[in-house]
Structure formats: structure tokens, C-alpha cells
Amino acid sequence: MYAIVLHSVVPVRLEPREGAEQETQLLFGELCEVLESLPRWYKIRNEADGEEGYVDYKMITLMSEDEHRACDAAVKSSTARVMLPMTYAVSENNGQTIPLTLGTRLPGYKDGEFEVLGVKFRIDKNAVAEQPLTLTQETLMQVLRFMLNTPYLWGGKNALGMDCSGLSQTVLSLFGIHLPRNASQQVKCGKEVKNLKDAQAGDLVFFDHNDPDSENTEPNNCKGDTHISHVGILLDSERVIHCSGRVKIEHIDSRGIYGAEQQLYTHHLAAIRRYQ
Fold it and tell me: Which is deepest, 47, 51, 88, 166, by most CB within 10 Å?
């Protein structure tokens, strides 16, 4: 079976119960395959990034193979995404509004309209990136300035709460870069950058559980048994934006992230990767 998300954000849980840990989220318009049907729950696989988990059966809409085929084609043919933290789409069927968050794909988008399952929606054209943005420090900041101070939420990937890899996955999608969901997966993609002096805006920096005050001052790019636990987006060779407590900009050097609030190094630099 196949399904589509018609809510703004849907939690995907580790187990089929309300109190279970949230692993990730589905955004409006995302397609998923239903792997298992349980009382009140579906186990699903997100077709966008392959993540699996359990969703409340009320939160997704089942669809036929023909509907899935049509929606899948519409999604793949459109590169349009919401580029503001939050905006609203209006249904032409009943005039109801639905909030859409940063990174939401808009199937069949053209001139302020898109369509899902035969229903047309209107949206502010100023809130949409119709084509992937060019990745520069300036365009990164245009997107990220609205995300500053977004609170940390485990498994979150929307403007009201997100985790570190949700930030990197969602933001880089606006630049045509499609990443897996988790930092431990994202670090296996792209190309190695040897050190910070060779890095550029949009490179991702990864961190492990090692002590930032250790004598090792060079990223090891995940050779050996390094366990990646955090990721951030470089603005330049000295500044990183990441989500730790909240989305914020902090200083980075070869040892890692230096937290101005804590007056100490908080994350040990393990790897630098480029995806362009």
C-alpha cells in the first residue's frame, strides 16, 4: 500500500504507541510505502529518504497505485519548495488553509499554484523557491536567518522544532542536495574536505563523542570507530550554524565548536564533507 501526507507535519515513532520516541517527521505532500498495518498504526517507509517508523493511521491518507504513480511523477517533475520557515496554502476546493513549513515540496507547482490528488492549492509566490538555490554564503544566510533560535526537538525537521540533522537535511534540500535523515548517514555522502582552511559555505561538519580538548586537532573524516553524533552547516572557516538547544551560530576551529555561552569547546570536530 501507498500513502500521502496531507497534514503539515506528521511524527514518525520508533514504536506503535503515542508515547514512543519520535524518530523523524513527514512533511505535507511526502509519499510513503505502508510496510505493515496494525490496529491504529501503520509502519511506513518515507520514499524521500528511506526512513522507517510508525505513524498514527489518522495522520496519513492511503492511495491507489494509480494515484501513487501520478503523485510520484508530479513530485519528481517539480523542484519547487517552501523557502520560508512557515507559510500557508489555500485549498481551492473549500478555501481552508494549511500551514507549510520550510523544505515542503510542491508537486506540479506553477505560478503560485500546485496540486495534490486533484486538489489545487494557492500559495504566496514569494514563499517558494521554484528552482534549487545557488549555494553561497549569502543565499545560505537568506534561508538560515529565519531559522535562528528554532528550538531543538529530537526527530524534528520543521521551523517550530528540529534536530541537528533535520536542519542540515531540510536546508540543503533547497539547494538541490538530497541527504539521508541522520548525521551518521549524511557523513557517508559527498566528498571529503581535509581541513577547515579548504572548507567553504555549505559544507557540513560532523562531530563525535571525543573530548574537544584532546590533542587530536585534525578531523579524521570518520576513519576507524568514530561515532558521529552531531552535524552543522559551515558559513565560513570560522563560523558554523547548528542546532544544539536551539539553532545558533558559533565559532569553529580545528578542535571543534567553541560555545560562547559555556566558555568551552562543546563538540569535537570529526569530519568535513562537501555535496556540491
Answer: 166
CA distances from residue 220 to 44, 121, 185, 210, 268 in whole angstroms, order as listed: 35, 48, 16, 12, 11
CB 152 within 8 A of CB 245: yes
pTM for the structure as a whole: 0.92
DSSP lists the bridge partners of residue 273 as 192, 204
φ/ψ of residue 71, rounded to 5:
-65, -40
Structural domain boundaries in the chain: 2-72, 78-129, 137-274
Residue 260's identity, in one-letter code, is A
Confidence of residue 34 (pLDDT cuts 50, 70, 90): very high
CA distances from residue 255 to 22, 137, 228, 229, 268 in whole angstroms, order as listed: 31, 23, 15, 16, 6
Listed residue (59, 14, 68) closest to 40, CA to CA: 59
Per-residue pLDDT tens over the stretch 187-238: 999 999 999 999 999 999 999 988 776 555 555 554 444 599 999 999 999 9
In CATH, which superfamily holds the domain spanning 2-72? SH3 Domains (2.30.30.40)
Proportion of the chain in helix, strand, coil states, percent, rounded to 5: 15, 40, 45
pLDDT at 165 exceeding the cut of 80:
yes
Active-site residue list: 164, 230, 242
CATH 3.90.1720.10 fits 137-274, yes or no: yes
